[in-house]
Task: structure prediction
Amino acid sequence: MKRLFTLFVVSCMVSSMFAQIQFVENFESFNASDPIEEGVVLSETSWYRCLKSTNQNGVSPVVSAGALTYSGYIASGIGNSVVLSADDTNDDRISTRRVYNQAITDKLYAAFLISVESANPTPQDIFTWEASTSSNFARGRVYVGADAGDVTFGVSKNSSTIGSQSGYALNTTYLLVLEYDKIGSEDDGNDDVVRLYINPDMSKTAAENIGVSVVNSDTNTDYDSGNSKIAINVKQNKIGATISSIRVSTAWDGLWSGIPAALNSVSYDQLSILVAGKNITNNEDQPGELNIYDLTGALRFSQEIASKETITTDLAKGIYVVQYTNVLGEFKTAKIAL
Result:
């Protein structure tokens, strides 16, 4: 007879040597040649196709088998990648997006790997922090351009002047980190600062990596309203590039050695799920998205799940962390044994 285990969890944090990872996206839940879009959005944490009213015919970036590699990066070579097309027939405003469902209180970082195959001399934005699910209002934009094989990376806020740095090569993998600093930092004294770190030294702090960062020049305009949620937007913009291994953290250290915030939680009364063998039943009142991580922080299973629904995983026996986000944007976590 199978034993049923009911897990109850509250998002109460205990001390840990690990910084928080908000999510890891290695595109493992997508098949090669699939666009990164999931149709009807059940949960705000899903990727989905974002259309503007004047741009209805574009296409989303497409998943490619295998990921980029970068020495020392914890997500190097894991899962799949997405390919941005340089085809001029692809609409430049079609994108996919995943929402971070909490207001930013301090800083938020997104690390990812990128290899640029082709670009125009005028940089175009291809990766952004969006502050809205219905409009194009960015907290930070990463730009890519190339002239005679010389790649330029740049960063701006919504429509501020682009800070850029050239001298990079085509068909070469780079580690980029987009930082959104709501409060401002000691070195500039301004609020709402956006930085792009290019090949940072992962053994050093963010402050120690300032020399490899590009800062947007508009440091005096504060776009943050104090309670905005935020989203990742990966967009087709006539740039030929491959992106993989996205990690989002509220702390710099979490990008390199962190594990999901779920691992720092203690189990009490909030999330209710049943585990029986490889079957998981959602006893929550709301539908949502169920993400299961292994103890290295790698995403191993992701599926939308209805209230009272039972799903079957294909995971090996072991200890895992469940992160559940319901349609209201509420995060809940649990440790499980399959």
The radius of gyration is 20 Å. The longest helix spans residues 254-257. DSSP finds one helix and 26 strands in the chain.
